[in-house]
Amino acid sequence: MTALPSHPAVPPHVAESIERAHKRIDRHEERIQRIELDGATMAEWRKNTTETLKSIRSGITWLITLILGGLLAAVIKFVISGGLNGAQ
């Protein structure tokens, strides 16, 4: 930040006040940039986490389907082989 040129119409205490205000604005701009970067980072993390959870959910769905299919196949085999009457 460049210092304000001394001008006879601007008293020194006003120039100092303006300089302090500029420094505060600069600090606020830096904070806003950090917050925006953090927000973008979190948005990307949420996107990746959502995709991972969808993949896990899909895997669990297939696993449940396979287990239920196996149980159904076992019941059908049991019924075909004589069920509760046993093999005679």
TrEMBL record:
Matching InterPro entries: Haemolysin_XhlA
Record flagged with keyword Membrane: yes
Protein name in the entry: Haemolysin XhlA
Alphabetic keyword roster: Membrane, Transmembrane, Transmembrane helix
Residue spans crossing the bilayer: 60-80
Natural source organism: Rhodobacter capsulatus (strain ATCC BAA-309 / NBRC 16581 / SB1003)
